[in-house]
Amino acid sequence: MDIIALHLKDIKVPDTSSKVYKDECIFSFDNPETNTGLYVSLTTFLGLGRDHVEKYFEKTCQAVFLHIRREKYEVSSPQQGDGPEKKITRLAIGVAGGFDPTSSKKYEYQDFYQIVVLPNFTTFKWPNEELPEIVKLSVKAIIDLPSASKLAEIEALSGTWDGEVRAVSKHAHGLKQLDNGIKIPPTGWKCEKCDKTDNLWLNLTDGSILCGRKFYDGSGGNNHAIEHFKATGHPLAVKLGTITKDGKADVFSYSEDDMVEDPNLIQHLAHWGINIANMEKTEKSMLELELELNQKTNEWAALQESGGALKPIYGPGYTGLVNMGNSCYLNSVMQMLFVIPDFIHKYYDAGNEYFKNAGLDAPDDFNVQMAKLAHGLLSGKYSVPPPSGSPVDADPPGICPQMFKNLVGRGHPEFSTKKQQDAQEFLLHIFTLLERYSKNSFNPGDCFKFQVEERFQCGSSKKVKYLTRSELILSLSIPIDAAINKDEVSAYEARRAEAESHGKRLEPESIVRPKIKFFSCLESFTQSELINNFYSSAVKENVTARKTTRLSSFPDFLVIHLKKFTLREDWVPIKLDVSIEMPDILDISTLRGAGPQPGEELLPELEARPPAPPMDEGVISQLTDMGFPIEACKRAIFNTGNSGLEAATAWIMEHIADSDFTDPFIPPGLETSKFEPNPDALATIISMGFTPDQAKKALKATDNNVERAMDWIFSHQDELDDVKSPPAPQFRDGDGKYKLVGFISHMGTSTMVGHYVVHLLKNGQWIIFNDSKVAMSENPPKDLGYMYLYERV
């Protein structure tokens, strides 16, 4: 005990405000289940793996640690039928209440503790009454307190909607119920307007029983329940077959267009003679159907290449990432980024500098966490073959980037939750963080940056105007009309309709998707378009202009995003189920813009900006009430000639995936090469205490984007007194010939749930990264991707 006594002055007892890092090492992915366990400092409560604990001791002289080692045992699952059936209560995968893909396996854990004193790794058993009191108090608190990762997760989820909580319907109290003598039998239900005997909804106002909506794949009902609402206005309906003895069921409000809670459901059902004590759940809930529906198409099997036994691959660069409950979007994006040489160099080759210089705040340092992730993925330490004799279906190795996820999602309304997210939006979020935390150092995200050139030609004067903007992803619309197999698709749709008319469903393997050549998508980006109400500074009035878009520079790595997510005419979000013929070798040289040409006359600079065109404030209010950003609403109203709500909503449906959808709206022709800050954005930043010059500088550096401008301000504090214009962004440029080296795919028919996987070309071999499973790809489905990564040849 004498060796411990030498360090008693440094030992502290954590309290409820302390962060205890006992889940994993702050510099690596070592954790209590790793062979060498985890060492938690009794001074700072930081967790360290065996490779880092000695370096940490040398730097800090903190010598006393709690060593945690955890053993994991697989136990037999109870036979099916024992105990209540697990109910899915969240539209999510891998979270509490959601679908559990590993539910067939059950594990138990046992933790082993001991006190370790460096530098000689002298050990003392735990529990141990002979230990000094301060040591016992410190260790007990470390064991009992929640980990820092768990606290961060709870904090991030605070106040968010994670898919479980439904709002109480505004119709629940005071719902009108007719006394028409109808009594609902306990079984034998049938739609009153067709032969459907499943997916039936009881209208709580008039007692009618009608079938529900048709699902994405053509299954479901015939829309009779919603047609009844449109005819009668009776808002609430309960799905028959989902009513349970505890008074729970799927309740839908047609007027609120959402699943809702009805706290008076028992009384509302009793009005129609339904005694819930006699009810049994016989149908799948809408959540269960949604999860099941996302796995019905053969896309799910194709993207995971689940038709055969794929050969696992191990070693440096082949480490999987554990799915932390709908985190597959993060896993796929980060796997893709760490095949880029600039990322490997900064965060792997030079990553040790971050560890060497990190202080006690390292867990919250973005660059440290990026370096930690790089070493976890690329070192090969956590990607080793299973021991000889392991079960064939043994869990594959992998790392769990929980600390990284907590850090990059902190404060973000979407990425801080456990809901499924869009991989393209997350990639843009990572680019923003890279810009913020690479202030005085090399930004590896610059290899994606390119410049877009927009050329406008006035229809009256024929004079031209050139504008440029910076982009990181090339987003392309999908022209369905350009499908090269329209006859096959039509024949398939006819067969499917015939099958459905007989209550049958075609096998997923028979699906025929529209096939579209990639260059048709590219043409939709480059083809010129007519712009109405373009303000011409030459004739000083609104005219028709022609706009042409090209690229002024070609990046080292080109990310192509296909806009597969859209809105149906009835506002239901859907994903386009199409096959795009993506080339292995891509030449975009013809997309290069050349700037002003000899003989062209430029439109004169605006002497004074004319007043903004009038817009119907009532329509703006209605659109914003629907949840659309105000700048998008202004853009929609302007582009539809201020012609009302219906035209504006139709425009929004068509343009919702545009890259500038939420950007500050400036009417065409009023843009200027001389930067002018958006007045509303300028006022917002000034209201936070910054000077007008500082606000203008930040907005210019970030293309008038308020959120990015605030990030820029906080990462350029030392430049706030220097109000000179920020330097123009630098763009790498080169030849326009590229090769395909990776693609991220989204499987599932709904935007609300689904799964992402990524295929990467490594050493001439395609590899599939499906969360923690990493294997050689036998048939990479290049035509079904969502985002594609091309490298300059």
From TrEMBL:
UniProt-annotated catalytic positions: C328 (nucleophile), H755 (proton acceptor)
Domain USP, chain residue ranges per copy: 319-793
Annotated coiled-coil segments of the chain: 279-306
Superkingdom, taxonomy of origin: Eukaryota
Keywords: Coiled coil, Hydrolase, Metal-binding, Protease, Repeat, Thiol protease, Ubl conjugation pathway, Zinc, Zinc-finger
Catalytic activity: Thiol-dependent hydrolysis of ester, thioester, amide, peptide and isopeptide bonds formed by the C-terminal Gly of ubiquitin (a 76-residue protein attached to proteins as an intracellular targeting signal)
Segments forming domain UBA: 614-655, 676-716
Protein EC: 3.4.19.12
Residues reported in the UniProt entry to bind Zn(2+): C191, C194, C211, H224
rRNA-binding among keywords: no
UBP-type domain mapped to chain residues: 167-276
Matches recorded under Pfam families: UBA (PF00627), UCH (PF00443), zf-UBP (PF02148), zf-UBP_var (PF17807)
Classification via InterPro entries: Papain-like_cys_pep_sf (IPR038765), Peptidase_C19_UCH (IPR001394), Ub_carboxyl-term_hydrolase (IPR050185), UBA (IPR015940), UBA-like_sf (IPR009060), Ubiquitinyl_hydrolase (IPR016652), UBP13_Znf-UBP_var (IPR041432), USP (IPR028889)
One annotated GO molecular function: cysteine-type deubiquitinase activity
GO annotation terms (biological process): protein deubiquitination; proteolysis
Similarity annotation: Belongs to the peptidase C19 family.
Protein name: Ubiquitin carboxyl-terminal hydrolase
